[in-house]
Every structure is written in C-alpha cells, then in structure tokens.
Specification:
With 71 residues, the protein is of the alpha+beta class. Helices cover 24% and strands 17% of the residues. Strands 1-2 form a two-stranded antiparallel ribbon.
Length: 71
C-alpha cells in the first residue's frame, strides 16, 4: 500500500512496508569502506545521491555499485 508521510516538512509518498528499510537494503550501509557519511572523504557516488535526495525530497537505496568494497 502506498501512503503519504511527512518528511523534512514535506508530504511524500512511500510504500508502507518499505518505511525505514533504506539502510537495510542499500549497499552503502553494508560496511562499504568508501561510505563515510557527513565527512569530506565520503564516497563521491554516495555524496552525489545524498545531495540529490535532499534537493528532491526522495530516498534512494543503492542496489548495485561499481565502487562497493566490504570492510
């Protein structure tokens, strides 16, 4: 079921069963050595997605990545 929620003072649509699952499914959050959120040495792909997400009020899970390398 698709529902509306408030996020960052905006109303967004989301599949209800996926709320809060982005980190669980995204490769970045699976101990990638390049993923260093909130630092200047963050992965450039992750950083670009983060900025795009902020601008557009979306959430993006990374399913495939050429830079992924486990810690």
């Amino acid at each position: 079921m698709i529902i509306k929620i408030k996020k960052e003072n905006k109303e967004v649509s989301v599949q209800e069963h996926l709320i809060g699952k982005r980190q669980e499914y995204s490769l970045c959050w699976q101990n990638c050595i390049h993923f260093k959120p909130h630092t200047t040495s963050n992965c450039p792909i992750a950083q670009e997605l983060y900025e795009h997400n902020l601008i557009n009020s979306i959430a993006t899970a990374v399913w495939e990545c050429p830079k992924f390398k486990a810690k």
